[in-house]
Each structure stands twice: as C-alpha cells, then as structure tokens.
Design goal:
By secondary structure, this protein is an alpha+beta fold. Helix content is 36%, strand content 39%.
Amino acid sequence: MALYEHTVMSRQDISAQQAEALNDTIKDLIVAGGGSVAKIEYWGLRNLTYRVKKNRKAHYSLLAIDCPPPAMAEVERQLGINEDVLRWLTVKVEELDLELSPLLARRERERERDRERGPREDADVVA
C-alpha cells in the first residue's frame, strides 16, 4: 500500500462539525477501500491569501493515510463532486509523519505556557 499526506480545504460557510464530518467521510472511504488513516488533524478556519471560489477563509484538515492507490483515487473523485470542498492536495510520501504538525505544535506550546502562568490578574469576572 502507498502512504499519503492529504490536505483538504472546505468552504467557510460550513461549521467546524461539518468539516469534521467531511474528515470522517474521507476516513470511511479509505477504510472501505482497504486502507487506514493514521492521523487526522483539523487546523480550523484560516484566512486564505487570495479568494478561492469566492471564499476568503477555509477550514483546513490534514490526514495521514496508508491505502492502495485506487482507494485514494476514489476519495479524490468524491471530493471533486462535493460542493463544500474548495481544494485538496494529495502527496505520496515515503513515511508517515505522526507527530503534531508545526501549526498544532505551536498552539499546544502556547496552551502549556498559559497554563504555567496561571490565571490572569484582570480575569476577575463577576458571575
């Protein structure tokens, strides 16, 4: 089987839950084709450098996939039909990188730093 990194950009109009459901649909297609998904990262709603199909933002997702080429071809065919998908990119790789992507690793470091600092002094909220 071949190893792939697959990135998907979906429309800004859909919710985060719908973007996650799209990831689950892709995973189901891969599993049905005899493959497996090693990692799914949802990067969230991000700004685009330029408009893509009249959208200024997109939901980004990254999947690490181990599947036969016909299963990946079916996924790409289904994404071409789906109106919520703006773009996708599939790259064949030698080995899967199962660590957090730099984007999510930076977010995690920021969360750790905030936890170490403790509650902010100006966070006195009257309930």
